[in-house]
Design brief:
single chain, alpha/beta, 6-stranded mixed β-sheet, 4-stranded antiparallel β-sheet, 16 strands, binds zinc ion
Length: 371
Protein backbone atom coordinates (compact mmCIF):
# COMPACT_ATOMS: atom_id res chain seq x y z
CA UNK A 1 0.00 0.00 0.00
CA UNK A 2 2.73 2.46 1.02
CA UNK A 3 4.72 1.88 -2.16
CA UNK A 4 1.60 2.50 -4.26
CA UNK A 5 0.85 5.66 -2.31
CA UNK A 6 4.41 6.94 -2.75
CA UNK A 7 4.34 6.18 -6.48
CA UNK A 8 1.05 8.06 -6.88
CA UNK A 9 2.15 11.10 -4.84
CA UNK A 10 5.48 11.14 -6.72
CA UNK A 11 3.61 11.37 -10.02
CA UNK A 12 2.49 14.92 -10.71
CA UNK A 13 -1.11 14.92 -11.91
CA UNK A 14 -1.89 18.62 -12.09
CA UNK A 15 -4.18 19.75 -14.91
CA UNK A 16 -1.05 20.73 -16.86
CA UNK A 17 0.55 17.29 -16.59
CA UNK A 18 -2.57 15.14 -16.91
CA UNK A 19 -3.59 11.93 -15.18
CA UNK A 20 -2.38 9.28 -17.64
CA UNK A 21 0.73 8.22 -15.69
CA UNK A 22 -1.27 7.75 -12.47
CA UNK A 23 -3.99 5.79 -14.31
CA UNK A 24 -1.31 3.44 -15.63
CA UNK A 25 0.21 2.96 -12.17
CA UNK A 26 -3.20 1.94 -10.79
CA UNK A 27 -3.92 -0.29 -13.78
CA UNK A 28 -0.61 -2.12 -13.23
CA UNK A 29 -1.32 -2.45 -9.50
CA UNK A 30 -4.75 -3.98 -10.19
CA UNK A 31 -3.12 -6.27 -12.75
CA UNK A 32 -1.06 -7.84 -9.95
CA UNK A 33 -4.35 -9.35 -8.76
CA UNK A 34 -5.49 -10.18 -12.33
CA UNK A 35 -8.07 -7.36 -12.15
CA UNK A 36 -8.74 -5.95 -15.58
CA UNK A 37 -9.03 -2.21 -15.98
CA UNK A 38 -9.36 0.30 -18.76
CA UNK A 39 -7.35 3.48 -19.13
CA UNK A 40 -9.57 5.85 -21.03
CA UNK A 41 -7.27 8.59 -22.30
CA UNK A 42 -7.79 11.68 -24.41
CA UNK A 43 -6.12 14.99 -25.26
CA UNK A 44 -2.75 15.77 -23.77
CA UNK A 45 -2.29 12.93 -21.23
CA UNK A 46 -5.75 13.28 -19.71
CA UNK A 47 -7.13 9.96 -18.46
CA UNK A 48 -9.79 8.13 -16.48
CA UNK A 49 -9.16 4.72 -14.99
CA UNK A 50 -12.15 2.36 -14.87
CA UNK A 51 -12.20 -1.15 -13.41
CA UNK A 52 -15.08 -3.48 -12.73
CA UNK A 53 -15.03 -6.68 -10.72
CA UNK A 54 -17.93 -8.58 -12.24
CA UNK A 55 -20.13 -10.91 -10.23
CA UNK A 56 -23.49 -12.61 -10.72
CA UNK A 57 -24.95 -9.27 -9.65
CA UNK A 58 -27.45 -10.47 -7.05
CA UNK A 59 -26.87 -7.23 -5.18
CA UNK A 60 -26.43 -3.68 -6.50
CA UNK A 61 -22.85 -2.62 -7.19
CA UNK A 62 -20.63 -0.30 -5.19
CA UNK A 63 -18.92 2.48 -7.12
CA UNK A 64 -15.73 3.87 -5.60
CA UNK A 65 -15.27 7.21 -7.34
CA UNK A 66 -11.81 8.74 -6.88
CA UNK A 67 -10.08 11.60 -8.68
CA UNK A 68 -6.56 11.23 -10.03
CA UNK A 69 -5.75 14.92 -10.43
CA UNK A 70 -4.31 17.32 -7.87
CA UNK A 71 -4.13 21.10 -7.58
CA UNK A 72 -0.77 22.75 -8.30
CA UNK A 73 1.82 23.21 -5.54
CA UNK A 74 1.23 27.00 -5.39
CA UNK A 75 3.78 29.74 -4.82
CA UNK A 76 4.50 29.20 -1.13
CA UNK A 77 7.63 27.32 -0.12
CA UNK A 78 7.33 23.66 0.86
CA UNK A 79 9.48 22.03 3.57
CA UNK A 80 9.28 18.76 1.57
CA UNK A 81 9.25 19.15 -2.24
CA UNK A 82 5.64 18.69 -3.43
CA UNK A 83 6.21 15.65 -5.65
CA UNK A 84 8.95 13.91 -3.66
CA UNK A 85 6.55 11.74 -1.59
CA UNK A 86 8.93 12.18 1.36
CA UNK A 87 8.30 9.92 4.34
CA UNK A 88 8.83 11.50 7.76
CA UNK A 89 7.49 10.50 11.18
CA UNK A 90 4.89 8.11 9.83
CA UNK A 91 3.60 10.55 7.23
CA UNK A 92 3.87 10.82 3.46
CA UNK A 93 4.25 14.44 2.37
CA UNK A 94 3.32 15.75 -1.04
CA UNK A 95 0.68 17.39 -3.18
CA UNK A 96 -2.29 15.05 -3.36
CA UNK A 97 -1.19 12.84 -0.45
CA UNK A 98 -4.45 13.63 1.38
CA UNK A 99 -6.52 14.88 -1.57
CA UNK A 100 -6.85 12.12 -2.57
CA UNK A 101 -4.08 9.68 -3.37
CA UNK A 102 -4.21 8.28 0.18
CA UNK A 103 -7.84 7.34 -0.45
CA UNK A 104 -6.98 5.85 -3.85
CA UNK A 105 -4.12 3.75 -2.46
CA UNK A 106 -6.43 2.47 0.30
CA UNK A 107 -9.32 1.60 -2.04
CA UNK A 108 -7.08 -0.13 -4.60
CA UNK A 109 -5.38 -2.13 -1.84
CA UNK A 110 -8.73 -3.07 -0.26
CA UNK A 111 -10.12 -4.25 -3.61
CA UNK A 112 -6.98 -6.28 -4.31
CA UNK A 113 -7.07 -7.91 -0.88
CA UNK A 114 -10.75 -8.87 -1.25
CA UNK A 115 -10.15 -10.30 -4.73
CA UNK A 116 -6.97 -12.13 -3.64
CA UNK A 117 -8.80 -13.68 -0.67
CA UNK A 118 -11.15 -15.49 -3.06
CA UNK A 119 -14.26 -14.38 -1.12
CA UNK A 120 -17.29 -14.73 -3.38
CA UNK A 121 -18.99 -11.38 -3.90
CA UNK A 122 -22.62 -11.15 -5.01
CA UNK A 123 -22.47 -7.57 -6.31
CA UNK A 124 -19.92 -5.81 -8.54
CA UNK A 125 -17.24 -3.39 -7.47
CA UNK A 126 -16.68 -0.52 -9.89
CA UNK A 127 -13.62 1.70 -9.48
CA UNK A 128 -13.34 5.09 -11.15
CA UNK A 129 -10.21 7.20 -11.09
CA UNK A 130 -11.41 10.40 -12.70
CA UNK A 131 -9.56 13.24 -14.38
CA UNK A 132 -10.05 16.92 -13.72
CA UNK A 133 -12.02 17.00 -10.45
CA UNK A 134 -10.11 20.08 -9.32
CA UNK A 135 -10.80 22.03 -12.50
CA UNK A 136 -13.89 21.13 -14.53
CA UNK A 137 -14.91 17.57 -13.54
CA UNK A 138 -14.21 16.50 -17.14
CA UNK A 139 -13.43 12.93 -16.04
CA UNK A 140 -16.59 12.35 -13.99
CA UNK A 141 -18.74 13.89 -16.73
CA UNK A 142 -17.06 11.72 -19.37
CA UNK A 143 -17.53 8.60 -17.22
CA UNK A 144 -21.23 9.26 -16.65
CA UNK A 145 -21.96 10.08 -20.29
CA UNK A 146 -19.83 7.26 -21.77
CA UNK A 147 -20.88 4.32 -19.62
CA UNK A 148 -24.52 4.34 -20.68
CA UNK A 149 -25.86 0.79 -20.37
CA UNK A 150 -22.39 -0.51 -19.60
CA UNK A 151 -22.72 -0.15 -15.82
CA UNK A 152 -24.42 -2.52 -13.42
CA UNK A 153 -27.14 -1.23 -11.11
CA UNK A 154 -25.34 0.90 -8.55
CA UNK A 155 -26.49 0.59 -4.94
CA UNK A 156 -24.21 3.29 -3.62
CA UNK A 157 -21.35 5.61 -4.55
CA UNK A 158 -18.38 6.08 -2.21
CA UNK A 159 -15.99 9.01 -2.66
CA UNK A 160 -12.74 8.27 -0.79
CA UNK A 161 -12.01 11.98 -0.27
CA UNK A 162 -10.25 13.12 2.92
CA UNK A 163 -12.94 13.41 5.58
CA UNK A 164 -10.76 12.11 8.45
CA UNK A 165 -13.18 9.16 8.65
CA UNK A 166 -16.33 11.23 9.02
CA UNK A 167 -19.26 10.04 6.91
CA UNK A 168 -20.22 13.01 4.74
CA UNK A 169 -23.52 13.24 2.90
CA UNK A 170 -23.63 16.88 1.88
CA UNK A 171 -21.62 19.79 0.58
CA UNK A 172 -22.33 23.12 -0.99
CA UNK A 173 -22.25 23.68 -4.72
CA UNK A 174 -19.95 25.99 -6.60
CA UNK A 175 -20.48 28.88 -8.95
CA UNK A 176 -17.38 30.54 -10.37
CA UNK A 177 -17.89 33.86 -12.08
CA UNK A 178 -15.59 35.78 -14.37
CA UNK A 179 -16.37 39.49 -14.19
CA UNK A 180 -14.75 42.04 -16.48
CA UNK A 181 -14.87 45.82 -16.56
CA UNK A 182 -14.03 47.61 -19.79
CA UNK A 183 -12.56 51.04 -20.34
CA UNK A 184 -10.76 52.99 -23.02
CA UNK A 185 -6.99 52.91 -23.42
CA UNK A 186 -5.10 56.20 -23.45
CA UNK A 187 -1.57 57.41 -22.77
CA UNK A 188 -0.71 57.25 -19.10
CA UNK A 189 0.02 60.97 -19.08
CA UNK A 190 -3.50 61.88 -20.24
CA UNK A 191 -5.93 59.82 -18.14
CA UNK A 192 -8.74 62.27 -18.94
CA UNK A 193 -8.75 60.94 -22.54
CA UNK A 194 -9.38 57.34 -21.48
CA UNK A 195 -11.65 55.33 -19.22
CA UNK A 196 -9.76 53.46 -16.53
CA UNK A 197 -11.10 49.88 -16.27
CA UNK A 198 -9.35 49.41 -12.92
CA UNK A 199 -11.25 52.45 -11.60
CA UNK A 200 -14.48 50.86 -12.79
CA UNK A 201 -13.53 47.62 -11.05
CA UNK A 202 -12.86 49.57 -7.84
CA UNK A 203 -16.43 50.93 -8.02
CA UNK A 204 -17.79 47.44 -8.61
CA UNK A 205 -15.77 45.95 -5.73
CA UNK A 206 -17.17 48.73 -3.53
CA UNK A 207 -20.70 47.63 -4.44
CA UNK A 208 -19.86 43.97 -3.79
CA UNK A 209 -18.76 44.85 -0.23
CA UNK A 210 -22.39 45.30 0.72
CA UNK A 211 -23.89 42.70 -1.66
CA UNK A 212 -25.49 39.72 0.08
CA UNK A 213 -26.76 36.73 -1.88
CA UNK A 214 -30.36 36.23 -0.80
CA UNK A 215 -30.78 32.67 0.40
CA UNK A 216 -31.81 31.11 3.70
CA UNK A 217 -28.95 29.30 5.49
CA UNK A 218 -29.10 25.48 5.28
CA UNK A 219 -29.32 23.49 8.53
CA UNK A 220 -26.25 21.37 7.72
CA UNK A 221 -24.40 23.39 5.11
CA UNK A 222 -24.67 26.86 6.63
CA UNK A 223 -24.46 30.00 4.50
CA UNK A 224 -23.86 30.65 0.84
CA UNK A 225 -20.43 32.31 0.65
CA UNK A 226 -18.77 34.58 -1.89
CA UNK A 227 -15.14 35.61 -2.27
CA UNK A 228 -13.26 37.60 -4.93
CA UNK A 229 -10.10 35.54 -5.37
CA UNK A 230 -8.31 36.77 -8.50
CA UNK A 231 -7.78 40.15 -10.12
CA UNK A 232 -5.92 41.06 -13.29
CA UNK A 233 -5.80 44.49 -14.87
CA UNK A 234 -3.56 46.75 -16.90
CA UNK A 235 -0.61 45.91 -19.14
CA UNK A 236 1.80 48.81 -18.99
CA UNK A 237 2.47 51.35 -16.28
CA UNK A 238 2.09 54.19 -18.83
CA UNK A 239 -1.18 53.00 -20.44
CA UNK A 240 -4.69 53.60 -19.08
CA UNK A 241 -6.06 50.05 -18.73
CA UNK A 242 -8.99 49.13 -20.96
CA UNK A 243 -9.78 45.87 -19.17
CA UNK A 244 -9.81 44.55 -15.61
CA UNK A 245 -10.96 41.08 -14.63
CA UNK A 246 -11.83 39.36 -11.37
CA UNK A 247 -12.64 35.76 -10.48
CA UNK A 248 -15.34 35.15 -7.89
CA UNK A 249 -15.85 31.90 -6.00
CA UNK A 250 -19.43 31.45 -4.75
CA UNK A 251 -20.42 28.37 -2.73
CA UNK A 252 -24.10 27.66 -3.18
CA UNK A 253 -26.75 25.78 -1.22
CA UNK A 254 -29.06 22.99 -2.48
CA UNK A 255 -31.88 24.29 -4.65
CA UNK A 256 -30.33 27.71 -5.04
CA UNK A 257 -31.01 29.51 -8.30
CA UNK A 258 -27.59 30.28 -9.78
CA UNK A 259 -29.05 32.41 -12.56
CA UNK A 260 -30.51 34.73 -9.89
CA UNK A 261 -26.96 35.54 -8.77
CA UNK A 262 -25.91 36.38 -12.34
CA UNK A 263 -29.03 38.58 -12.63
CA UNK A 264 -28.00 40.39 -9.41
CA UNK A 265 -24.66 41.23 -11.02
CA UNK A 266 -26.44 42.65 -14.07
CA UNK A 267 -28.52 44.85 -11.76
CA UNK A 268 -25.39 46.09 -9.97
CA UNK A 269 -23.83 46.93 -13.38
CA UNK A 270 -26.96 48.90 -14.35
CA UNK A 271 -26.83 50.84 -11.07
CA UNK A 272 -23.17 51.74 -11.60
CA UNK A 273 -23.86 52.78 -15.19
CA UNK A 274 -26.54 55.16 -13.94
CA UNK A 275 -23.98 56.82 -11.70
CA UNK A 276 -21.24 56.85 -14.36
CA UNK A 277 -22.26 56.51 -18.01
CA UNK A 278 -18.87 55.12 -19.10
CA UNK A 279 -19.15 52.13 -16.73
CA UNK A 280 -19.13 48.89 -18.73
CA UNK A 281 -18.93 45.33 -17.45
CA UNK A 282 -19.75 41.71 -18.22
CA UNK A 283 -20.27 38.58 -16.17
CA UNK A 284 -19.94 34.96 -17.28
CA UNK A 285 -20.07 31.58 -15.56
CA UNK A 286 -16.73 29.76 -15.57
CA UNK A 287 -17.87 26.68 -13.69
CA UNK A 288 -20.95 25.47 -11.89
CA UNK A 289 -21.42 22.37 -9.78
CA UNK A 290 -24.57 21.68 -7.84
CA UNK A 291 -24.65 21.02 -4.12
CA UNK A 292 -24.66 17.45 -2.81
CA UNK A 293 -27.48 16.44 -0.52
CA UNK A 294 -27.79 12.71 0.11
CA UNK A 295 -30.65 11.80 2.46
CA UNK A 296 -28.86 10.96 5.74
CA UNK A 297 -31.73 8.67 6.81
CA UNK A 298 -31.68 6.44 3.70
CA UNK A 299 -30.84 2.74 4.14
CA UNK A 300 -27.52 2.96 2.31
CA UNK A 301 -26.23 5.76 4.55
CA UNK A 302 -27.48 4.02 7.69
CA UNK A 303 -25.79 0.76 6.71
CA UNK A 304 -22.65 2.59 5.65
CA UNK A 305 -22.45 4.37 9.03
CA UNK A 306 -22.87 1.09 10.89
CA UNK A 307 -20.15 -0.57 8.72
CA UNK A 308 -17.63 2.09 9.76
CA UNK A 309 -18.90 2.61 13.31
CA UNK A 310 -20.06 6.22 12.88
CA UNK A 311 -23.33 7.39 14.44
CA UNK A 312 -24.25 10.29 12.20
CA UNK A 313 -23.32 11.80 8.86
CA UNK A 314 -22.03 15.35 8.37
CA UNK A 315 -21.54 18.06 5.77
CA UNK A 316 -18.23 19.54 4.58
CA UNK A 317 -17.09 22.82 3.10
CA UNK A 318 -15.31 21.50 0.03
CA UNK A 319 -16.91 20.37 -3.24
CA UNK A 320 -16.50 17.00 -4.97
CA UNK A 321 -17.44 15.13 -8.16
CA UNK A 322 -20.42 13.75 -6.19
CA UNK A 323 -23.10 15.94 -7.82
CA UNK A 324 -21.98 14.70 -11.27
CA UNK A 325 -22.56 11.11 -10.17
CA UNK A 326 -26.04 11.65 -8.72
CA UNK A 327 -27.48 10.89 -12.18
CA UNK A 328 -26.43 7.26 -11.67
CA UNK A 329 -29.40 7.10 -9.32
CA UNK A 330 -27.60 5.94 -6.18
CA UNK A 331 -26.90 7.66 -2.85
CA UNK A 332 -23.46 9.30 -2.66
CA UNK A 333 -21.36 9.17 0.50
CA UNK A 334 -17.93 10.73 1.09
CA UNK A 335 -15.60 8.88 3.45
CA UNK A 336 -11.84 8.62 3.53
CA UNK A 337 -8.49 9.05 5.26
CA UNK A 338 -6.69 12.36 5.59
CA UNK A 339 -7.39 15.71 7.19
CA UNK A 340 -9.40 18.14 5.05
CA UNK A 341 -7.50 21.11 6.52
CA UNK A 342 -4.15 20.10 4.96
CA UNK A 343 -5.53 19.93 1.42
CA UNK A 344 -4.48 22.47 -1.24
CA UNK A 345 -1.77 23.82 1.12
CA UNK A 346 2.03 23.54 1.25
CA UNK A 347 3.34 20.42 3.02
CA UNK A 348 0.12 18.50 2.53
CA UNK A 349 0.54 15.10 4.18
CA UNK A 350 -1.25 11.93 5.15
CA UNK A 351 -0.59 9.62 8.09
CA UNK A 352 0.38 6.18 6.79
CA UNK A 353 -1.53 4.62 9.70
CA UNK A 354 -4.70 6.37 8.50
CA UNK A 355 -4.33 4.91 5.02
CA UNK A 356 -3.86 1.47 6.58
CA UNK A 357 -6.97 2.03 8.67
CA UNK A 358 -8.85 3.06 5.52
CA UNK A 359 -7.89 -0.23 3.80
CA UNK A 360 -9.67 -2.10 6.62
CA UNK A 361 -12.72 0.20 6.46
CA UNK A 362 -13.08 -0.18 2.68
CA UNK A 363 -12.79 -3.98 2.98
CA UNK A 364 -15.51 -3.94 5.66
CA UNK A 365 -17.71 -1.78 3.40
CA UNK A 366 -17.21 -4.12 0.41
CA UNK A 367 -18.05 -7.18 2.51
CA UNK A 368 -21.05 -5.52 4.17
CA UNK A 369 -22.68 -4.49 0.91
CA UNK A 370 -21.47 -7.10 -1.54
CA UNK A 371 -21.12 -10.44 0.25
ZN1 LIG B 1 -10.44 15.86 -3.63
Amino acid sequence: MKELLRKLVGTETTAARGELAAAEIISAELGRSQIESRVDSWGQDRANLVARIKTAGHKGALLFACHLDVVGPGEAKWGHPPFSAAERDGRIYGRGSADMKGGIAAVVTAIRQVVDSGIKLVGDIVLLGAAGEETDSCGAKRFVSAVGGDLPDIAGVVLPEPTDFEVVTGHRGMLWLDVKTFGKAAHGSTPELGVNAIGSMRDLLGELESYKIRVEPHKLLGECSMSVNTIVGGKEINVIPDKCEIGIDIRTLPGQNQQAIVDDFQRIFARLKQKKAEFQASVSIVREVGALETEPACDFVKEFCSAVGVTESKAVGFTTDGPHLVSLGAPVVIFGPGKPEVCHKPDEYIDIADVQKAVEYYKDIILKFLS
